[in-house]
Amino acid sequence: EAQVTQNPRYLITVTGKKLTVTCSQNMNHEYMSWYRQDPGLGLRQIYYSMNVEVTDKGDVPEGYKVSRKEKRNFPLILESPSPNQTSLYFCASSNLGDSHAGELFFGEGSRLTVL
Amino acid sequence: GQNIDQPTEMTATEGAIVQINCTYQTSGFNGLFWYQQHAGEAPTFLSYNVLDGLEEKGRFSSFLSRSKGYSYLLLKELQMKDSASYLCAVMDSNYQLIWGAGTKLIIKP
Questions:
Q1: In terms of DSSP H, where are the helices of B15-107?
Q2: Mean pLDDT of A12-29
Q3: What is the pLDDT of residue A98?
Q4: What are the backbone angles phi and psi of residue A109, rounded to the nearest 5°?
């Protein structure tokens, strides 16, 4: 089954404790992206990757890191989480070769709470 | 700057028709997308418009006017399961998606 898998789905952590949210897709997509979603603000892009070893900042990259060592994986790293990073996070991927490459496939989301 | 506007919330009656509007100002245009998102779930792709006109897909249709920077999503024969947020997104000249904040659609019996 074609899917994007994120882990963990739910996490409560404390300020300053490094954490990683994993994302993996099995559709051989070149493009992967991380979003955060907060009430009233919609989806905001954190980082994206057009292919292996190519990553770029989105609209809200501060406090986050990513890596793209393999095509299927795109982990999101919070080196020192703070309460303002409490949010719902989505990983998404798409096939850049498609006629409408904006058709994103989303993971189920990771709800993160930073105390 | 780049901007996408859509109503925050709309209410409609089961069985009726509702139109959700989206206006945009972006740096370039490479297509407009509509996504559906149920509460607490991931967005799912609904439709794509790159040329002017109407695209129909079952009970859902999407319209685009590039000259006016305007699109709408039309939902017919509303069902309770259509209660969700509907997100409008435009792909700009850099092939990046610009997202609206979403329209929460409430369906009443």
A1: none
A2: 96
A3: 64
A4: 100, 150
